Amino acid sequence: MHAVDYTIVSVYLCAMVIVGLLMRKKAKEGIESYFLGNRNIPWWALGASGMSSNLDISGTMIIVALIYAIGAKGFYIEIRGGVTLIMAFLMIYMGKWNRRSKVMTVAEWMSLRFGNGKQGNLARFIQAITSIIFTIAMITYFAIGGGKFLDTFLGIPQSWVLHIGSITIGTEFWAALILISIAMIYTVASGLYGVIWTDVFQGILIFIAIIYIVIRALGIQLPDEFSVALPLKDGGFMHLGTTLREWTSLAPQWHLNIPAESDYSMYNVFGILVMFYLFKVILEGSGGTGNYMIQRYYAAKNDKEAGLLSLFWTGLLSFRWPFIAALAIWGISLGTRITDPEMVLPMVVSGLPIGIKGFLIACLMAAAMSTFDSTVNAGAAYWVKDIYQQHINPNASEKHLMRQSYWASILIVVSGLILSIFIKNINEIWSWITMGLGAGLLIPQLVRWYWHRVNGYGYALGVASGMLTAILWKLLIKVGVIPDAMVPEYFSFLAASLMSLLGIIIGTLATAPTDEKITQNFYNVTRPFGAWGKYKLMLPEVAQTKIKRENRRDIISTILAVPWQLTLFMFMMNLVFKSWSQALILGLIFIALSVGLYFTWYRHLSTEVKID
């Protein structure tokens, strides 16, 4: 970078630290303020912050790599997580169900669901531990992507590379450390207040970057035939020829023809994988999410604002896809200068003019830091609220809890940084997070909402079984015990999800059910649909009718919302591809689904069933 670029980046970083420190006084009021902003943050700020948190460097690099290497069909692969399809479920009903719980963390939610006795406390403790593990994995993911991106520009000397036995700590690690250290300052100091308002500011920068990249990419005319780079299983790269028509086509295919020696050959069973990803995301969305995404719903003021923040969040997030399409097009135009698909983003930015390069780097650092700050703030809450205050020091003062918040944040980040030394690329850690760790939580998080019989012991055993399976699976792959034929991500998903299902069934049926008064109170508060027959019948008939009507609307709306979100994102991407026929079809479908959602969901947003 030129001195001008370094100056622009430095000004941005200083501004972030200053904003965070200015929010420190507000955050120091207590942990309710530190982790939830006293539930008084506007819905549009929560939605804008959510978008910024979803649009991170690591995710952008891996999605750009898939679109660049596979073409528009790479979109279907990222249904596994990068499309954030769970937003459709949060928008319609899962967001408001969680908001009604009025808790601070998913772990604290366990006390509402299973009570404050042994089973509730066990479920809460296990959930807190697994959420912290998940947070550490997310920090690792952030560090690998952020380090890989920044290392291209910072010019860190090779003398900084360390060799400790068979472990190499490269320049990418030090680049990530610099970025994380700066983000830590305002994240630790200002809590959710600082996270939300710095994210809003960073979201503005992100949109400026999107507009610039898209406009430049629209002026690029790709040839009818070109080649793309693919990663090899041995760590090298190869180039493979394709056509513009094939590359921009969204027409579903049952099978891809990626060479077997490529690391991406796992996607050759394309049709099966896409159905698998869609099935996985539907289960995941129906069970809700955790960590930084759900934290924004706990901070929402009411049901209506939970819906509005989701709608705004999804609308803003749709602009990620023209950005990704533009970067992929730009990467194609660079020809054989691209070897590693995950390096398309930094290669594009490195070729920009002085000044613009610095500004774009600052914008992309904003994307990275907005993911990091949300993840750390949400992760620290599990230690403070669900472990330290619950089991170690129940009488701790607010000042003492705030100190624990600071130390928890620091230790989580250090753990994630250490783990990043052992992971080779972004796709590896993202695949493990979505298809391993996520699979371990999927079944327990699903059944807790819909099956009244599940108890705290069953939930705890299900989560513990799934998470331990995911961790052991990864370790056994690393040491070579699991053969290559079992390495594809769907095997880790099946192993973790099946073990968690077995654990939850055994744990639930082998122990006594949750006290009926606790279960009845949970149903009265959240009012989910599912197997709640006798608890629903305990309510006045008028309330039963209103709940039934609301549940029916939510189910119909969700059926519309899933394709609504998918068509919106694909439509936005096709505008940049200049695939006008595909864009027209997707646009018409999107309009029709939007009309349906208006009548089944949007006009009922202010309607909330009251249980007297």
Describe this structure in a few short sentences:
The chain has 612 residues and is mainly α. It is 72% helix and 3% strand.
- Helix percent band: over 70%
Order of strands across the widest beta sheet? 1-2
Reading the helices and strands in chain order gives HHHHHHHHHEEHEEHHHHHHHHHHHHHHH
Q: What ranges have pLDDT less than 50 throughout 5 or more consecutive residues?
A: none
Q: Any idea what the CATH superfamily is called?
A: Sodium/glucose cotransporter
CATH hierarchy class name? Mainly Alpha
CATH topology: Sodium/glucose cotransporter
- Which word captures the global form? globular
Strand content range: under 5%
Overall tally of structural domains: 1
Structural class: mainly alpha
**What is the CATH architecture descriptor?**
Up-down Bundle
| Tally of DSSP β-strands | 4
Give the mean pLDDT: 84
Number of discrete helical segments: 25
For the biggest sheet, the summary is: 2 strands, antiparallel
Radius of gyration: 24 Å
Description of the molecule:
The chain is mainly alpha-helical. It has a single domain (3-604), classed as Sodium/glucose cotransporter, CATH 1.20.1730.10. The protein is 72% helix and 3% strand. It is built from 25 helices and 4 strands. The chain has helices at 3-22, 24-27, 31-36, 43-54, 57-70, 74-77, 86-101, 106-114, 118-154, 171-218, 244-248, 270-287, 291-298, 303-317, 320-333, 344-350, 356-392, 398-420, 426-450, 456-478, 489-509, 516-526, 533-537, 541-577, 580-600, and strands at residues 162-164, 167-169, 225-231, 237-243. The strands form 2 sheets. The protein has a two-stranded antiparallel sheet with strand order 1-2. It has a two-stranded antiparallel sheet with strand order 3-4. The longest helix is centred in the first third of the chain and has 48 residues, at 171-218. The termini are far apart.
